[in-house]
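wait is this the right file?? whatever heres the structure
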């Protein structure tokens, strides 16, 4: 019961600070821009003589770019909304009001974590579902395996959230944000270098990408999601940004799961030992 109370408090606090509402408003703005872009593209198609097959592939590519943007927005939101949760409350002393209650520290931490997980579930559902709905309504395109893709994106967000809370038990808010965003940037660059290896057959680029994914597997999760959602033809095109040049295996997804659980366990242990 204490755990669910803490989760509810976290959600209400996010709503009170207008974190969730601001993120949703920004997301709705993105959906509007995405819909307008698709509409103009459809207008250009109607005015020309583009073959239906090519038209569908172009619109599918635009949908994948939209979903990639949603993924980036969701991960950044997961980091920025939670970066001040542990470290900021410890610095300001507000955590004492909760830690002095008859609530175990692990319940306090897991409750906060669960509250943010619930918030991310709402955000990913609205944004991912909204992007797919716009793509279907305006352009008549839908991704392959959208539910599986959405679950992988949600998994990536929970991973970023857990790592952020873990470093929050060690470092200040600013340091925590720099570390986590830096790790995600490292994963992002490593993932794209691994994709670029297909143009040069460079095993060294692949090695760099794999090492980056082992350090922070967030981008690997997205690339697996993109592989599951894109059309087979788009994946086979070597010049596509989502080409099937280097697809993370299910073993990598399993590693990401172990990574997440390890980060959560480390965070719990250090939060239990830390002097508040």
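ok assuming it is, sequence goes like this
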């Amino acid at each position: 019961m204490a755990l669910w109370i803490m989760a509810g408090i976290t959600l209400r606090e996010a709503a009170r600070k207008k974190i969730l509402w601001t993120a949703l408003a920004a997301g709705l703005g993105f959906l509007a821009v995405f819909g307008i872009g698709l509409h103009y593209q459809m207008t250009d198609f109607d005015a020309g003589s583009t073959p239906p097959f090519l038209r569908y592939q172009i619109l599918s590519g635009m949908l994948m770019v939209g979903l990639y943007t949603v993924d980036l927005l969701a991960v950044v939101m997961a980091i920025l909304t939670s970066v001040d949760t542990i470290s900021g409350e410890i610095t300001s002393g507000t955590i004492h009001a909760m830690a002095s209650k008859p609530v175990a520290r692990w319940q306090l931490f897991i409750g906060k974590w669960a509250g943010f997980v619930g918030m991310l579930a709402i955000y990913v559902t609205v944004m991912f579902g909204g992007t797919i709905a716009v793509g279907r309504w305006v352009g008549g395109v839908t991704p392959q395996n959208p539910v599986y893709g959405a679950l992988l994106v949600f998994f990536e967000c929970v991973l970023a959230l857990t790592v952020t809370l873990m470093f929050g038990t060690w470092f200040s808010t600013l340091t925590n944000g720099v570390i986590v965003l830096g790790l995600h940037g490292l994963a992002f660059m490593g993932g794209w270098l691994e994709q670029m290896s297909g143009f040069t057959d460079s095993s060294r680029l692949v090695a760099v990408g794999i090492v980056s994914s082992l350090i922070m597997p967030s981008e690997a999760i997205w690339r697996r999601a993109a592989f599951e959602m894109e059309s087979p033809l788009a994946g086979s095109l070597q010049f596509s940004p989502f080409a099937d040049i280097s697809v993370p295996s299910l073993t990598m997804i399993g590693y990401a799961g172990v990574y997440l659980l390890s980060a959560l366990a480390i965070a719990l242990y250090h939060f239990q030992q830390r002097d508040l």
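Residues 186 and 232 are 28 Å apart (CA to CA). so i think its the right one actually
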